[in-house]
Amino acid sequence: SGRKPPPSSLTLRHPLIPPLSKGAPMADALLQRIEALERRLSTPPPPASPGSSFAYVPASTGDSFFLLCSGLMVFFMQCGFGMLESGSVTSRSTQAILLKNLLDACISGLLWWMVGHAVAFDGGNGFIGGEVGFSPSSFFTAGYRNADDPGYSYLLWWFQWTF
């Protein structure tokens, strides 16, 4: 048959991690690899070269992707509720039910943008975000443009709105 026999030992090759040295005991070789990996993980990643398909992905990107996907699933539950409600009424009421669900999403989005997020998350009160005389930095998402990562702030706003 044309199959190759399996290799006698597992070899992992990486350009930044030295290969197992010949003649060294296995424990020493593994310790060398672990130390090389620890050095690699403790240094910042190199910038991607132009034209390279490799790029460092920061943790906030993964968080953003998770928030986006989770928020999309929750938001599309609106469609499911619309289908459930329109299936529970007569066919002539279906259009009114679907319009009600659309207006529910639109009006709640506007109100969440105007005041909801600021009341829920701005300020230092443990029960509800705002206190009497608190700074209106989140009304109309006014303070988000000055945030360290405005895209993540807007995405967090959107994720909270979907609930």
What is the fold's blueprint, element by element?
Blueprint: H1 26-42, H2 59-75, H3 77-87, H4 94-121, H5 150-162
Description:
- The protein is mostly helical.
- The chain has five helices and no strands.
- It is elongated and about 80 Å long.
- The N and C termini lie far apart (59 Å).
- 2% of the residues are buried.
- The mean pLDDT is 75.
| Number of helical elements | 5
Radius of gyration: 27 Å
- DSSP, total strands: 0
Indicate the structural class: mainly alpha
For the largest beta-sheet, the strand count, sense and barrel status come to: none
The succession of helices and strands, N to C, reads HHHHH
The percentage of residues in β strands lies in under 5%
Helix content: 40-55%
Unreliable residue stretches: none
Shape: elongated
Assembly context of the chains = single chain
**Mean pLDDT across all residues, rounded?**
75
Distance between the termini: 59 Å
What's the quick description here?
The chain is mainly alpha-helical and 163 residues long. The chain is built from 5 helices and no strands. The longest helix is centred in the middle third of the chain and has 28 residues, at 94-121.
